[in-house]
Amino acid sequence: MSQPKIKKVWLFAIPLICFLGYFIWDAYSQPSIADIPGDFQEVAFIRNEQNKGGIIRIYAVTVGDPLNAQFEKAADLFPTNDYGSVTKVFFFDMKKPFPTAVTVKEPHYDTAKYEAINIQKRYGSRK
Known about the structure:
By secondary structure, the chain is of the alpha+beta class. The chain is 25% helix and 24% strand. It has a 4-stranded mixed sheet with strand order 1-2-3-4. The chain is elongated.
């Protein structure tokens, strides 16, 4: 290969490598609930099985530091879908009893045994 052709290849290859590198870095550096103040830990999850109508997701999450917890930011990281779906995130104090299983049916856990310290709901948009 001649010198000008090699320069053209590198002028194309270097930006392409940088571009792909950025996408790979971005994909692996997304925040999780572990990155948010409050010592959050997901302990239970269920999703309705039907694919008709809205998708319902129920999460139980423990909180190690309720005073500094950022519940809104944590709830924003859980997925929602379009077409009337709902995601409910129940936060429980890690130092008290918490459910390790949830159900799709209301009230989603045994309210006589466990007490949520915060409940966040996220709704999908209608398209």
